[in-house]
Amino acid sequence: MTTVTIDLPDELARDAQRAGLLRDEVIARSLRQQLQTRRTDELFAAADRMAAINEPAVMSPEQIAEAMRLMGAERRPQSAR
Question: Is residue 64 helix, strand or coil?
Fold first, then answer.
């Protein structure tokens, strides 16, 4: 367990304390939610960057489908073929 010390304006600290927001479990839940939100935002930002790249695909959809079919065949046991 890690102890974290933060500095808050007095009024904010009082209000948060009265609202029960300074309890360990509440702060942990809030931090987890913020981390998940950031990961989601980063994922969408990466998708936006990828969509903005104006280059042709290295493989056609047909080539991708064929490669996936071959990979599936390689992973199946010999007896299932």
Answer: helix
To the question of pTM greater than 0.90 for the whole model, the response is no
Residues in Cβ contact with 27 at an 8 Å cutoff, skipping those fewer than 6 apart: 21
Question: What is the Cα–Cα distance from 32 to 74, expressed in whole angstroms?
Answer: 40
Residue with tokens 């390689």: 74
Q: Is 58 helix (H, G, I), strand (E, B) or coil?
A: coil
Of 6, 52, 46, the C-alpha closest to 27 is 6
pLDDT tens-place string over residues 3-44: 999 999 999 999 999 999 999 999 999 999 999 999 999 999
